[in-house]
Amino acid sequence: MKSVILIDDNPKFINDMSLIIENHPGFRMVASANNGREGKLIIQHHRPDLVIMDIMMPDDDGLEVIRYIQEECRSYNPHLYVITLMKTSSVRGILKDLKVDFISFKPIIYEQVAKNLERISKAQDKPKAPIQKKSFKVNPAHAIVDLIEDLEIPSHLIGSEYIKTALFFMLDDPLLKRNVYKRVADVFNCTSNNIAVNINNAIKACIDSGMYRAEFGENKIETLLFLNHLVVMLKKRLRESDVS
User: Residue 77: which domain range?
Assistant: First the structure.
């Protein structure tokens, strides 16, 4: 019987998935967490056979959890099953590059999830994760995190997570304009106005950083122009990483 950990900031999703897992004879639920930071701790403690997680979460997102598993969990190598609202080609590509075993999208389709769980229950344990050779090509997810850190946007601000999500959408569709707020709001189950306000708060928090001053001067820039400029900066970094 394989042990399972759930990591998602949506209590209803945790509850629904727990019921599905409990009704499957091949699995036992051992723990759950509502953010990535807690998720890494329970992974370290329980060493599960399967981790089911979302991507967009507070306090370390799912991509950070995956990176933690692949870089730090050398003595065990759990199956990874991502279930997310982020139906963008950039996210699909990132998850493929990270060798995630299974991907589904919310709202969950019971038959699809049950089918994937059945395949995992019959699969052999994965071999220990090999030591990753450093690649000069930057993963877009890591480039987004690095960009936000360089701007010195405090990680505890929810606007930081909203900016990350907005950049994923805008990488796929730079012409989203203000519709990006609605797309991000759908992921976090809130209003477009809430998204805009919290991103605005994140901008205020980083206005004294060296990078902000170099890119925008001393004045606060309008929120959408800020996001558009970050996409330009992000694409430049990704192009430079491909060349190096």
Answer: 2-122
